[in-house]
Amino acid sequence: MVSIRECTPHEIHVANGIVDTAFRQLRQVYRPTLEATLRQSQKVEAVRVFLASIDETCVGTASIFHNGDQLTMYRIAVKPEFHRCGVARALIDGIASICRQTGYEHDEYIVLQTIRDTGNVRIFERLGFAVIDEQVAKWCISDTYVTLHEVTMRKRIA
User: Fold this and answer.
1) What is the CATH number of the domain that holds 32?
2) Can you list the positions of beta strands (E) in the chain?
3) Where are the alpha helices (DSSP H) in the chain?
4) In CA terms, which of 16, 114, 132, 134 is 20 to 30 Å from 149?
5) Are 50 and 95 in contact (CB under 8 A)?
6) What is the pLDDT of residue 100?
C-alpha cells in the first residue's frame, strides 16, 4: 500500500534524490535551458512537497502550489523500479485529499504541464487528466526532437 505525507524540511534531499533518479530518463528526451533553470531556482512560492512511501521506503514525490482556484502540481516523480505500482495515482489522489483537509477546500482542479514527446500525456490521461492546452515548449531543448510540445492538463478534484 502506498502512503502519502507532506515532506519535512529535513527530507527535501530525499524528494530531490527521487526527482533526479526519475528524471534521468526524461533528460534523454529533453532538458531545460540554462535560462529556464535559473528562472525556476528564483521562484518564491508557497510550495508544498509530498512523499509517497511503500513499506516505509520513499518511492515518489510531487510538489504543489496554490494558483487561483487550482493546485499546480509539478516535479511528479516515481522511482523507475516502482513504475506501474499505483504510486503516481496515490500521490495525485492523496495530495488532493490532504489539500482539501488543510485549507484548499475551494480548489477545483489540479493542473500540470508535461512534454508530449516523453509519452507522459497518455499516462496522465489514464490518471484522469484532460489536455486543455498545447504549445511549443520554448524553455527546453532536445538532442532528439527539433520541436518539443508542452501540454497543460487538468483534473477536477472538487
Assistant:
1) 3.40.630.30
2) 2-6, 31-32, 48-54, 57-67, 70-78, 109-115, 130-136, 140-141, 149-156
3) 12-26, 34-42, 87-101, 120-126
4) 16
5) yes
6) 78
Question: 37-94 pLDDT, tens per residue?
Answer: 887 766 656 788 999 999 999 999 999 988 777 889 999 999 999 999 999 999 999 9
CA-CA distances (angstroms) from residue 109 to 13, 50, 67, 68, 137? Answer: 28, 18, 10, 10, 23
pTM summary value = 0.89
Domain assignment of residue 41, given as a range: 2-156
- The DSSP code for 80 is G
Number of domains in the chain: 1
Alpha-carbon distance values, 23 to 20, 30, 40, 104 (Å): 5, 10, 16, 29
pLDDT in tens, 101-129: 877 666 688 999 999 999 999 999 999 99
Query: Which own/partner pairs from 127-134 qualify as long-range (CB within 8 Å, at least 24 positions apart)?
Result: 127/88, 127/89, 127/92, 127/155, 128/92, 128/155, 129/153, 129/154, 129/155, 130/154, 130/155
157 confidence band (pLDDT: 50, 70, 90): confident
Residue that is written with C-alpha cell 524553455 in the block: 139
CA angle, residues 57, 50, 20, in degrees to nearest 5: 70
